[in-house]
Amino acid sequence: MKLIDEYLKEIEKDLKSKKLRIKTEEVGIIEEVKDGVAILSGLDNVAYGELVEFNSGVLGYVIELGEDKVGVIILGEYLNLEAGSQAKSLGFTLSVPVSEKILGRVVDPLCNPQDGGSKIRSEKSYPVEKVAPSVVYRKPVTAPLQTGTKAIDALIPVGRGQRELIIGDRGTGKTTIAIDAILNQKNEKVICIYCGIGQKNSKMAAVVNLLTKNNAMDYTVIVNASASAPAALQYLAPYSAMAIAEYFMDKGKDVLVVFDDLTKHAWAYREISLILRRPAGREAYPGDIFYLHSRLLERACRLDEKYGGGSITALPIIETLEDDLSTYIPTNVISITDGQIFLQPDLFNAGIRPAINVGISVSRVGGTAQTKAMKSVAAKLKLDLAQYRDMAAFSQFESELDEETKKFLNRGSKLTQILIQKKNQPYSLALEVALIWSATHGLLDDMPIAKINNFENQLVLRLTTKAKKWLERINKNKILTETDETELEKYIKETIAITR
Fold first, then answer.
1. 473 an active-site residue?
2. Counting Cβ atoms within 10 Å, is residue 164 exposed (0-12), middle (13-18) or buried (19+)?
3. pLDDT higher than 90, residue 405
4. Which of 282, 364, 389, 473 is an active site residue?
């Protein structure tokens, strides 16, 4: 009896010393499983964007909140899920692991490696969905982001923190412009993120190979949701890429993000929405399709120094069909972005590459994101080229032209030719300034068009071998003085003499 009393006292003592903790879990039941989407009931207190775990261990992401049911996109294998099985809410929203070690890696939208490398050890996690920084945190876009493409840096300048749309038909060189911009950041201290949405694996492999060959993977992250990936992962890809970009921006760094392309992103969202039986609107897209891209691209900005001073520059890509800019997704994204680079098949087929239509393309940031050196040589370039295109079209119907018109057409043809550029060969600021200066100052007026390309190659070779100090000075100071112009003119005239 005494032993029993002592035993009871021990139990009583243990019960008093330990605090009881009650763990509650919100559990739902799967009503339906569709193509990568599950409909659940019983999750009354779940939030939009919250993670849900199924019995099989697969995670889901809440994308639809109904009165008594929720729609969840499944982030993994969904064929093992069946109606009647349980799922519990985890109480936190979807985040991706981020760290400096993600540079040089190819990952899926959940930051799982696709390059055969080790799992990424994260310093912290960043939410996939995040409210964009308010106006108070932002700073005007004034610092240029050199793309290395003469036509863009001279005519449609891109600034750090800007959102510049690249739009055009299939096969007009949209991805090439974006990749060249990434290649040009080697010495610009800009971290690059290339987000492939619904692209063929062969194309993504070619991009990885090109960046590796040019030593650009050292400062680049590739987020890949290929055409064979579920619609759920294609939908999440750009938001994951933006979360990775925000990690580096919060460290005070400048980031360039390429979304290739948002047309396929809209298709993936439309597919999910139709499975969820949302009411279809114009072109079968759901009513909130505008918000899909606006909440993504608004996160690209330039922060004030007080809040870190980093920036995210976005280059979204949109594919058009037969040059039609009036369709739903192109008009939406044009209204969200700070300008567009419009590529035309006719120009591409005529050999003008990059095939930029100068008349329609625009940068709403304008000259404020241009260096003084580039501004001084490209001040009249855009107007002259636009007038040249109009006059060239009109002159086809005119048999006799006066001398002034002939001179103007001749100069315009030389300007057009000097802006043609081979792919994957970005130029430094100094080389761009030198080539454009030679054409705008009339030094190439007497040269046959066929020899312009040879002149360009010879001038680049001469400047990179004999005028290294001149190049370094322009790249560093970003100003073109009279002394610099005199020295440049000497090199140009020597090159013209050799070319002839």
1. no
2. buried
3. no
4. 364
